[in-house]
Every structure is written in C-alpha cells, then in structure tokens.
Amino acid sequence: MLNETAMAVLEQAGATEPEKRIRDRSATERAIVKAAKNLLAEEGFQNFGINAVARRAGCDKQLIYRYYGGLNGLVEAIGADLGNWVKDRIPEDAGGMFLLTYGDLMERLSLLFLEALREDPLMRRIVAWEVSENTEQVKRLSEARSKALGQWLDRMRGSLAPPKGVDVAAVNALIFASIQHLVLAAAAGGQCAGLALKNGKDWEKAATALKRLVRGVYG
Amino acid sequence: MLNETAMAVLEQAGATEPEKRIRDRSATERAIVKAAKNLLAEEGFQNFGINAVARRAGCDKQLIYRYYGGLNGLVEAIGADLGNWVKDRIPEDAGGMFLLTYGDLMERLSLLFLEALREDPLMRRIVAWEVSENTEQVKRLSEARSKALGQWLDRMRGSLAPPKGVDVAAVNALIFASIQHLVLAAAAGGQCAGLALKNGKDWEKAATALKRLVRGVYG
DNA sequence: ACTGTTACTCACCGATTGGTGACAGACCGG
DNA sequence: CCGGTCTGTCACCAATCGGTGAGTAACAGT
C-alpha cells in the first residue's frame, strides 16, 4: 500500500504501476502504524512480524527499524494510543446522571465494556495476546490497558461510594475477566463453555446473564 | 530424549553418549505425545511445531508424520486424552453429599475448577490457544474440552434441581469464563485487570470474590 | 540363512523469518 | 552549484520452518 498522497499523484498522472513513493516520513510512519494495527486486528499476533507489517504497509522493513527501532518500538507506539481507547470507544457521558447506586453503575459499565470489546477486533487480539505470551512487548500493552481501564472505572464512579464489606477490586476483576473471556471465546469459536454466541439473540442472553451476575453482588 | 528403556540400557552399560534407539514403536509414540504435551505446556503454542516436538522427543520428525500423520493428528491424539481431564484432576466425590442447594454446588465446582486450572499449565495453554486461533486443530480441542466440562457439570449436579427463572447455561458460562480468564491472566502476567495474583493471599481474595459472585446469582 | 517388513535416520528441498549493509535519489543549506 | 542529510530500495545473510524421498538397521517368518 502506498501513501495516500502517492496514490493521488499516480492516479492523477494515469500511471498504471507504482513508480516512486512520495518522500513523506510522517505519512509513512502513519502508514506503518496503520498497517500494523490492521494486521494485528485481522491476522492476530501469530503472524505478526516485521516482514508482514512492511509488506502490508507497502514499504521496506528497514524503515520500521529506522523509525521505530524494530517491532518492539512499533508495538510500543501502538500501545501509546491504547490509553485513549476507552475514551474513543465509549461515550463519556454514558453514566453519572441516572445511576443512583454502585450496582447501577457497574451494570452499565459492564454492558458498555462488553459492547465496546465486541466491536473492536484489535483490542480483542491484544487481550488474547496478553494471556498467551509474557514478553516485554505484551507487558507494556497489558499495563497500558489495565491502567486505562482502572482510570476509566474511577472516573465513571465519580463520587459514588462503593459498597462496604466487599472486595470491589477483586469482584470487578472477575466481572471484567468474564466479559473478556466471553468475547474472546465468541470471536474465536462462536461459543463459550458450550454457550453459543453468534446471533444477536445469543448476545442478549449473555447480556442479561451478565446483568444478573452484577446485580447479584452489587444489590 | 530417549525411550526410558533405552536410557536404562545406556546407563547400565556405562555409555556416555546415546548410540542407538531401542526399536519400540509404542514407546516412541508415547515419547512423542509426552514431548508434545510438555512442549505445549512449557513453551506455549507459539513455538509449537513439528521440528520442536521431534527435537524434544529425541526422534526424527518423520516419525511424527508416519505415526500421527503430522501435527494435526498429534494434536488430535492429545485432545483425545482431554476428555478425562476433569476426572483426573478433580476428586469425583468432591460434591454430592453436603451440597443442599444449587448455589452450594456451583460454589464448590467453581473453586475446584479454579484450583485445577491453576495447577495445570497444559490446560492453561490450551485455553489460551482456543481464544487466540481458530484453526481446525484448536476447534477439536475446544470441543472436546467444553464437552467434557459440560458432562462434568451434569454429573456433579446429579438430581439437584437448577433454579428457575435463571438462564443457568449463560450464567455458568460467564462464571467459568471469569475463572479461565483470571487464571490465564495470572499465569501470563501475575495480575488480572489490575488485581495482583501472585501469592496465596491474592488467590484467597480472588476465591472469596468468586464465592460472592456465585452466591449472588445462586442464592 | 535368505527375504520382506518394520522402525528409524539422514540429507535435502523451497519458503520464510529477523536482521544488516550498501546504495540511489530527493531535498535543503551553504 | 555542491555537499550533506533524509527517505526509501535492494540484495543479501544465517537460521528455521514444514515437508519429502531415499537409505539403513533391526526384527520376524519361513
């Protein structure tokens, strides 16, 4: 794939084959990051390598080494955007107004998170990556992600007091763990622990079960 | 690695270097399967290939093609044992006697499953594999596993009536999903959604949170 | 003891991987 | 205009991958 500018030039000139690439470093960098993200989202981390990214970005892998210092740096660059994921993916004003209890809040946030994760293949791959490998790359991604998630939870909680006598951190970890595994298993095989997760009806069942689970602990 | 018999012979003879391999097909087959299991458990599915298995089994990869028809057949052979996992790993009489309600049962089973999964690296890798890839191999493993799990649940339930008005299948799927992701994340990075999971104390917290979650839905 | 089968090893294939050094051309300041 | 820097390309490296065909050594039956 060429730069957008390069494509425009070629099309305008009526050229049939890509001759030269426009010398635009920042555009190339963006193309590389975009290619890496798409590749990771579509193919998964299995075949995620320098060659594959360069091939998809339509540039030489040498540039990845030069601009990002290799795959590690590129992954790090991807992880840098991860902090804004929640902000980009979930409406900020989704809660806060009609949520009277902590249970209301967590039910809402759980469903929002479920929905957001379902619709973001890149994030799904990253989560799957986190539980499959333990390299330094993945650790960075994982930390960025969980940090952003925690901040999101705190921000949404606002001044709402969490229930006493309950290990909120542990319970919430379990809740979000269930959501993540459910979505990952569904994306991979269309089911989770025997529960089919394909059409919208299946997901409605899962959503009501999730609500019930959250309501069970948080009143 | 050589056959056990071969090792014995060599040691008895005082040989320092492995000269020949005993011609024992079934022993070699067992060595291959064992090597594959250990490799998968220790290294994960990332570097799980014909060459690596053969190297660890101490035999030529050609034998894997001959005896199992390639990696697929070998994985299938591994998956065949998976049906007995619950039986091997979890005490059969663990429930049934003092469990009066469905909530008692599920609390017990959840904790048993959590414990069993924590102590089985091979099974953890397989679960991680399931949510990371969608090949035919993995599908077979996944099906065998979820089938065995479902049968186990049914068997342990016995004649205990599940609560009405609750989508038991969906709720249980979420519960087991949470356990699986918790254990996987812990094994990979020592934490899950910001919750540390390293020493026994951490796991006690997680266990009580899990109990609370289960008790919340199932009275 | 000869023969055929079984168990096993070895050498090689093309493809792909991560990684590096050398080179060509566009751009910019002098 | 010239020289240096920046951007991008290409050729090549050793290593490893999955896969195959040919060959060797041990066994069993006769």
Automatic annotation (TrEMBL), chains A, B:
UniProt KW keywords: DNA-binding, Transcription, Transcription regulation
Keyword Ribosomal protein (UniProt): no
Residue ranges constituting the HTH tetR-type domain according to the UniProt record: 26-86
SUPFAM superfamilies: Homeodomain-like (SSF46689), Tetracyclin repressor-like, C-terminal domain (SSF48498)
Protein name according to UniProt: TetR/AcrR family transcriptional regulator
Entry-linked PROSITE patterns: HTH_TETR_2 (PS50977)
DNA-binding region(s) in UniProt: 49-68
Superkingdom: Bacteria
